[in-house]
């Protein structure tokens, strides 16, 4: 066994289609927690929502980028999850090194990078699955949702449009890959991304009155149960969303459900 590899991760710059692990209500501090196992410290990359793509690329991040992009081989999507994840990291030491590389790239990659989707989906999902397997935790996929309407006609301090009505939802969906040797990378990625896309489409289709006056949490959970059922297969099971935050701003009034 190699010597101890203490890892201090940079913020992982990925859009909302990220997986997580058990403890869906955990705080960022909890997500940063490390565990001592076989003399190797394994830390999960931390999600960042800053969206700052202007960060300079360090030599470390550049080297990590080149190493990780090597996994984007022709037809990699057709590999099984078992084969692909084993290629990424098969020992605790390799996992610690791999997660550090994911964090290095995630802290600097730009949204317009031609390989952004590869890092944001296949690499992101697999890195969290490997971490959760190491920790003995379930796989979960974080799906932040939002609906905005009635633009106010001015921008906030960050240059973003201000809306008179907004609804923000934070939710996780747990999933279980029963037979990773029979599920391809493409099948997993499509199932998770479709789940998020359809949940966002459903929220977009609700009126302001339905969101404010109805049981929005129940409606979202019902829709997520339908999606979990339709997207699950005998080899990969998805569960209904665990919704842990709904925040609504309506004409200056804040509503938390």
Can you describe this structure?
The structure is a single chain. The protein has 257 residues and is of the alpha+beta class. Helix content is 39%, strand content 25%. The chain contains 8 helices and 11 strands. It has helices at 28-31, 59-69, 81-88, 92-106, 116-135, 185-205, 208-213, 216-231, and strands at residues 11-13, 18-20, 34-37, 40-43, 46-48, 139-142, 145-155, 161-177, 236-238, 242-250, 253-256. The strands form 3 sheets. Strands 2, 6, 7, 8, 9, 10 and 11 form a 7-stranded antiparallel beta sheet that branches. α2 packs across α4 (92-106), α3 (81-88) crosses α5 and α6 packs antiparallel against α8. The longest helix has 21 residues, at 185-205. It is globular. 31% of the residues are buried.
| Strand count | 11
Strand count, sense and barrel status of the largest sheet are: 7 strands, antiparallel
- Describe the global form: globular
What is the first-to-last residue Cα distance? 49 Å
Structural category is alpha+beta
Q: What share of residues are in beta strands?
A: 25-35%
What is the H/E order?
EEHEEEHHHHEEEHHHEEE
Helix content: 25-40%
Described by its quaternary structure, the protein is single chain
Rounded to an integer, what's the Rg over CA atoms? 19 Å
Brief characterization of the structure:
By secondary structure, the protein is α+β, with helices and mostly antiparallel strands. The protein has eight helices and eleven strands.
